[in-house]
């Protein structure tokens, strides 16, 4: 099964509107009026979405993502942003369950599941993040953790909605550390996640769902990781902040 790779830039809490504009000035000429064999997604902070949609809204090769959303429609949820609000900024994807949301803000699998379901109500495509800590991996809990995150996080998602979801396998010990999972470690985890999708949603869904790798992806390691059978692109933090390095990862990885 041919799956279109997807490369997503997770800027985290970096780049306000003016830095987003600087990025756009350099990145736009490289992607405008071009077709790529992969999907390219940029996830700026909420406050930069208006600027990003002004820059990239008409660029067919680039889609925008938010880095989070609320599990509620509207109301007394100070500081939150609903999926419906994001639609006004030409946002098509939303990163959900990133390990920083899980560990710093205490998001549980159940909360992430509610967010996935709410995002799908307005046709936003979740980039659903999962991954184990070093302690869990070394304690032999890799499969148990991934099974729990997938089973609970994707509970009640329909098969159709699942196909519009992207999974990002991101071992927590590789995020922002400069330590990348080896291609073998990554492929093994991706194959396991795909088998979990097969159990929960069937063989067709397992063959079609895109599973990105995330964790210190750089221009130098993208090709080896992306060559793995079950890896369909990357979620990139640090190395996506520079237009040239984000583009090199996309080019080297496809
Ligand atoms: C991430 O934030 O999802 C990530 C993978 O970060 P980095 O590429 O910096 O490890």
From TrEMBL:
**Top enzyme class of this protein?**
isomerase
**Does the record's keyword annotation contain Coiled coil?**
no
PROSITE patterns the record matches: TIM_1, TIM_2
- Please tell me where this protein is predominantly located: cytoplasm
Pfam families in the cross-refs: TIM
Tell me where it resides: Cytoplasm
Listed EC numbers: 5.3.1.1
Which InterPro entries does this one have? Aldolase_TIM, TIM_sf, TrioseP_Isoase_bac/euk, Triosephosphate_isomerase, Triosephosphate_isomerase_AS
Catalytic activity field: D-glyceraldehyde 3-phosphate = dihydroxyacetone phosphate
Q: Which GO terms describe its molecular function?
A: isomerase activity
Its pathway is: Carbohydrate degradation; glycolysis; D-glyceraldehyde 3-phosphate from glycerone phosphate: step 1/1; Carbohydrate biosynthesis; gluconeogenesis
Q: Does the keyword Cell inner membrane apply?
A: no
Which residues act catalytically here? Answer: 98, 170
**Residues engaged in binding substrate:** 10-12, 176, 216, 237-238
Identify the keywords attached in UniProt to this record, alphabetized.
Answer: Cytoplasm, Gluconeogenesis, Glycolysis, Isomerase
Task performed by this protein? Involved in the gluconeogenesis. Catalyzes stereospecifically the conversion of dihydroxyacetone phosphate (DHAP) to D-glyceraldehyde-3-phosphate (G3P).
Family statement drawn from the similarity comment of this UniProt entry: Belongs to the triosephosphate isomerase family.
How this chain assembles, per its entry, is: Homodimer.
Name under which the protein is recorded: Triosephosphate isomerase
**Species for this entry:** Haloferula helveola
